[in-house]
Every structure is written in C-alpha cells, then in structure tokens.
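Q: Given only this backbone (98 positions), what sequence would you predict?
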C-alpha cells in the first residue's frame, strides 16, 4: 500500500493506492483543515493513512510539504504557511507511528 500526503497551509489531504503505476484509491481520500497545531495535524495524518490503507500494510508514505527542508529531509526549516511545523521531526514521528 502506498499512501500520499499533501500538507498545505490550509488543508491536508491523504490518499492510498495499491499501485504506483495505476492509481486506484483503496478508500476515499481524506481531507482535513489544518488545526494550526503540529500534533493534531500529525494525528490526523496517521489516522487518515491507516484508514486509506484499509487494513493493509503501508509500504511507503510520500509527503509533500511547502517550505525548506533540513538536509536530511526530516524537518521543515522554514514554512511561511506552516510555522507550527518548523523544527518538528515529522519524518521520524510518522515513521514510528506507521
């Protein structure tokens, strides 16, 4: 199962597909209005990813974030519309949760 996450300044969207070459949503994509709270946003992503995977093992999660990432690509250094994400270890947090 492949899960894609689009984090924007206003909304977060999460969708899951069994294939990278033939897009077929396993469950309905999820949409959430950013809470302006990092932990609440992460909690939504984790719950939505599990829901979109529909009980299947998540092999890979890809995430699109606006802003400048750290050299290891695990932390946002600067994001004008996601200031509450700056400095947070999102990659490690999501990896451990999923």
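A: Predicted residues:
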């Amino acid at each position: 199962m492949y899960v894609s996450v689009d984090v924007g300044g206003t909304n977060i969207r999460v969708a899951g597909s069994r294939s990278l070459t033939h897009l077929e949503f396993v469950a309905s994509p999820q949409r959430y209005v950013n809470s302006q709270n990092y932990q609440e946003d992460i909690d939504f992503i984790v719950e939505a990813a599990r829901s979109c995977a529909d009980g299947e093992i998540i092999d890979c999660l890809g995430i699109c974030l606006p802003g400048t990432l750290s050299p290891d690509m695990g932390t946002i250094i600067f994001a004008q519309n996601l200031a509450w994400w700056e400095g947070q270890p999102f990659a490690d947090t999501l990896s451990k949760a999923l």
